[in-house]
Design brief:
The complex is a heterodimer. Chain A is an alpha/beta fold. Helices cover 34% and strands 25% of the residues of chain A. The termini of chain A are close together. Chain B has helices at 2-11, 15-22, 24-27, 29-42, 49-74, 82-99, 104-129, 133-151, 166-169, 177-195, 197-207, 209-214, 219-244, 258-268, 280-299, 307-330. The chains are: A alpha/beta, B mainly alpha. Bound molecules: adenosine-5'-triphosphate and magnesium ion.
């Protein structure tokens, strides 16, 4: 099946080589809601892929399956061509090198910035006592590298603005791995200036060899950072385009269904 | 327009008030001092050394259990069965000693094992089966209390060998063994919550389950251990309570009405019903406040029937502060 797709005109939409992460025929239902229907997905080294689609199209669900939060109903996940099972987010991190920033951020509001970034991987003394000095220094360094200004790494996350919280969530992902980043609407809560920062960060990550998946409703941004665009509609993948070969009009058409999805993909 | 201004003004509290609300363990010192002053004005005997010792001796039981409860409640769960566990461990140990001739130390270990088992059952029903902790532990508590009465045929189990009362006669720090245990546990729990990776896992579990899970914290295990610790401390409390009785006996009535002191004390001490908030030091003061009210009302010669309603009102006040604070943090 993969072979047919690769021989099809769709070939132009995929970089050559083995995907570092691949999903085949993923389906997921929540009760009567079929959130994903037989979805294929592939990621190549050092690319930025945008997942786009209307509300409820299934983007977050796919991200949560790839990051081990949800279990798929059927389908297969492969890392470097090898089939794997993710029994939880830690598996996805360890086996797939996947770090995720969730749409709802999932932060511990009552703890400070540094403790959130290093939650469960805190530097310790004697394996149990948190080494706060190192914790704060490390956190400072990560934020510095992201060029993020926070009042202090010791301030509780619950007291931060939306953009600052987003920064903490991204830093937490960054502290755990550098291979693949899944960013679910990373700019949704941000002001213009901080949106630009996140976009720059995505490009920086790519420049350092990371692969980034970014979900966004903002086509402006998507066209700024993405190499490939994958469009979802009602739980199906309806189109894949290289940025260099598509237009916003075409993408909008795919999102709304005004343009019929690619036969190869829509039929699966 | 004027409405908007008014709404804004309401949120702009004086900053010291703000800070007091944020750090509950200091906030609780104010009512504590006010109450002691109030009782002192009615009868200075409240500050007599013997009264203070009595307060410390009595509060040590709910205090010791509270040091487990604070962890449990930070993870977002609660245990209403602890007072019953006190009763059953005492009765069980007493019956092993008197009826089966088991040595005292061995019987104590079995009884503590039983308390751990009850904590584990609470955890399984709550965490695995998914029954709300209030219902689980209420049900388990009733069953445990019932077993205790059945086991003892409704009567105190005695006579017991003199060793049973040994720990109860000791007066370390001029108070009691339970009190010292409570202080030690307070220090340990304080360090765990504030200085260790366990503490980070405990707060994460109670604040944002998804956050805990995505970084690989096993929230079910955290909660299970918290349930077991709480129940274990209740077991210790039960045994030491028996030891401290004038005539040590396995009395099924042990721990009766103590639920209120434990839960209310912990909530007064700043633990949140919504999880994610609480401290060991606050818990100490919360439990102390409950006992000051109890003892103070006796010393100041109020009608004893006022005790429970007054304690209930204090708990409601603390719970209201908790809800208000929770809403503010939700914004
Ligand atoms: N935990 C859940 N329980 C029940 N239904 C869910 C759950 N998560 C997602 N769904 C449903 O699955 C469908 C896909 O949701 P998903 O969150 O993946 O969409 P999305 O593409 O991320 O949308 P948005 O752009 O609004 O974030 C929706 O119909 C949603 O209601
Ligand atoms: Mg989404």
């Amino acid at each position: 099946m993969t072979a047919t797709v690769n021989n099809s005109p769709n070939l132009v939409s995929s970089p050559p080589g083995t995907p570092i992460l691949e999903a085949r025929g993923i389906s997921k239902a929540f009760g009567h809601v079929q959130a994903l229907k037989n979805v294929d997905f592939e990621l190549y080294p050092a690319e930025v892929v945008a997942l786009i689609g209307d509300n409820g199209a299934g983007k977050s669900t796919l991200v949560k399956i790839l990051s081990g939060v949800y279990r798929k109903d059927s389908g297969q996940i492969l890392v470097e061509g090898q089939p794997v099972e993710f029994h939880g987010p830690v598996d996805a991190q360890r086996l797939g090198g996947i770090s995720t920033v969730y749409q709802d951020l999932a932060l511990v509001n009552v703890r400070d910035v540094a403790s959130n970034i290093y939650l469960n991987i805190e530097p310790t003394r004697f394996g149990i006592f948190i080494n706060f000095k190192k914790l704060y220094a490390d956190a400072q360094e990560i934020l510095h590298r992201l060029k993020i200004d926070l009042p202090s790494v010791k301030v509780n996350v619950g007291e931060l603005s939306g953009g600052q919280r987003q920064a903490v969530a991204i830093s937490r992902a960054l502290a755990r791995g550098r291979r693949i980043f899944l960013l679910d609407e990373p700019t949704a809560a941000l002001g213009v200036e901080q949106q630009d920062k996140v976009n720059q960060l995505i490009l920086d990550l790519k420049a350092h060899g990371s692969t980034v998946v970014v979900i966004s409703h903002n086509l402006e941004h998507v066209f700024k950072v993405a190499d490939r665009l994958i469009v979802f509609r009602r739980g199906r993948r309806v189109g894949t385009r290289l940025k260099s070969e598509t237009t916003k009009e075409e993408i909008v058409g795919l999102i709304t269904g005004a343009i019929k999805g690619d036969a190869v993909e829509a039929a699966t | 327009m004027s409405q908007i201004t008014r709404a804004r003004a309401r949120f702009r509290m004086p900053s010291f008030m703000h800070r007091l609300l944020a750090r509950h363990e200091s906030a609780i010192l104010i009512p504590l001092i006010l109450l002691v002053t109030f009782f002192y004005l009615r009868n200075p005997a409240i500050l007599a050394p013997i009264t203070i010792t009595s307060i410390l001796r009595t509060m040590a039981f709910p205090g010791l259990i509270g040091m487990g409860m604070v962890i449990l409640m930070i993870t977002g769960e609660i245990d209403l069965s602890t007072a019953s566990v006190m009763s059953l461990t005492a009765v069980f140990a007493a019956s092993l000693i008197r009826d089966a001739g088991v040595p005292v130390w061995q019987a104590s270990i079995y009884a503590l094992g039983l308390s751990l088992l009850i904590g584990f059952i609470n955890a399984v029903l709550t965490v695995r089966v998914g029954v709300h902790a209030v219902l689980t532990t209420l049900g388990v508590g009733l069953a445990v209390r019932g077993f205790s009465y059945l086991f003892a045929n409704g009567l105190p189990i005695y006579p017991l060998p003199e060793e049973v009362g040994y720990l109860g006669t000791l007066r370390p720090l001029g108070v009691s063994v339970v009190f010292v245990l409570m202080i030690i546990m307070m220090v340990i729990v304080h360090v765990i919550l504030n200085r260790t990776t366990w503490g980070a896992a405990i707060f994460a579990t109670g604040t944002n389950k998804l956050a805990a899970q995505i970084v690989g914290i096993n929230t079910n295990r955290v909660k299970t251990l918290a349930f077991m610790l709480t129940s274990f401390l209740a077991g210790c409390s039960g045994l030491l309570y028996m030891s401290q009785l004038p005539l040590p006996s396995g009395d099924p009535i042990i721990g009766k009405n103590l639920e209120l002191d434990i839960i209310a004390g912990v909530i007064l001490g700043g633990v949140s019903f919504f999880g994610g908030r609480g401290s060991a030091i606050g818990t100490l003061f919360g439990v102390m406040l409950m006992q000051v009210i109890r003892t103070g009302m006796v010393v100041a010669q109020f009608d004893p029937y006022w005790q429970i309603p007054v304690l209930g009102l204090f708990m409601l006040a603390a719970a209201s502060v908790d809800v208000i604070r929770h809403r503010r943090s939700e914004r």
